[in-house]
Amino acid sequence: MMTKRTIQLLLLACTALLIHAVEDDGRHLLGVRAYGSNPNFKLGRCEGDCDTDNDCLNGMICFQRGSNRAVPGCTGGAQDRSRSDYCIRRSDLGGGSAPPPTPSPPPPTPNPPPPTPNPPPPTPAAGRGNLVCHQRNKYQGVPGCRGGESNGSYTDYCVSRGGVAVATPVAPPVSPPTRQGSGLGDSNYRFQLRLYWQNGYTWQETTRETWWCIQCARCNKFSLGDGPRVGCQVTGDTDRSCRAGDNLWIRKCKDRRRDYQFNVIKNAGSGDQVRVDGTNLCLSTVNNRYLELRNCDRSSPRQLWKRIDNIKKFELRPYHQRDWRLKDAKCISQLHHPKDKELVGLHRCRTTLDHETMYWEEYHG
After folding, report:
1. Distance between CA atoms of residues 190 and 265, nearest Å
2. Where is the composition biased (Pro residues) (predicted)?
């Protein structure tokens, strides 16, 4: 006779088999399931909370989301008030529960409607045909499409390059600084962005002080791991080698053989921007996960960071997350303990605090 414990184990096994059978059938949508912020096992489809693709089973990716945001290929995300991220199949990104924007009918007259005042410029898209990626703020219309005004996310959309006219503002020229600057608050004040270190920190099994700074990298695709694995290459020896679209990684910087410096731009009533010294390129987020360099635009929420008051020790977290709890907000850091040519991106602030990699500081060599 089977014991009660044996029956329970059999029921659990049958449930697991049923779940995996449904997961393998693309015609079904699974409900999201959250197991807390730090599960100690690999997560399956529609399971969370994940931080990176490494938290998911093979063949799946970690879908980063905000509160009440739908999860592609899963149900229940729109009702989930937490900011948990969930594992999904790559193929789910092509469909899922969030419908794509519907193109609007052609205008009744040959004259196009007036452009939205000062919209962000479209940037080349990685899609097909003659399309560009229209970068927008929440509740901002999408040229040639409808529904943008009611969309409270910061999602960007592909639009036709030859469609409705989009006014492209011309960024003012930026003259390279000719002096060191007088300190925080002076946009000419330049310094290297060093990962903050203090006595007692243990990185890579040693308490010896090490120097890691952010530098430009040119990569084949976005990643949060080792740069060389995704084809990242050194751009040069100084910040003058940085270009729009470059990614960021950490390199040893004590000897100043490579000199990449940055400025902090203060914006009244808003967040700070971090600019590559002598350029018009600012740190910009991608999908609340990755980092790249884009032309500085103080109206873009992707470039605004929590205000920096102490240049000797500060966080770099998105401005709109400045009051979020550590377990919900994301901060610029790298995976676990620092190592050479590791890409930096957005990670849970709570995790980076545990790894002693949450803060940054100025460095002058």
Report:
1. 11
2. 98-124
How many residues can be counted in the chain?
365
Q: Which of 240, 332, 321 is nearest to 284 (CA)?
A: 332
Whose CA is closest to 242, among 213, 280, 274?
280
Residue 110 has pLDDT above 60, yes or no: no
Q: What gap in Å lies between CA 74 and CA 47, rounded to an integer? A: 10
Domains of the chain: 28-94 (no CATH), 100-170 (no CATH), 192-363 (2.80.10.50)
- HSE at residue 355, side-chain half, CA atoms within 13 A, is 19
Place of tokens 């789910």: 92
Query: Are 93 and 72 a contacting pair, CB within 8 Å?
Result: yes
Summarize pLDDT for 216-264 with one digit per residue, the tens.
999 999 999 999 999 999 999 999 999 999 999 999 998 878 899 999 9
ω into 186 cis (within 30 of 0) = no
Residue 31: phi, psi to the nearest 5? -80, 145
Q: Which of 174, 209, 193 is nearest to 296 (CA)?
A: 174
Q: Among candidates 117, 121, 116, 115, which has minimal Cα distance to 296?
A: 121
Kindly state the average pLDDT of the residues 73-93: 84
Identity at 344, one-letter amino acid code: V
SS3 275: strand
Question: How far apart (Å, rounded) are the C-alpha atoms in residues 194 and 212?
Answer: 6
* Amino acid at site 130: N
Q: At 144, list the tokens.
A: 């040639």
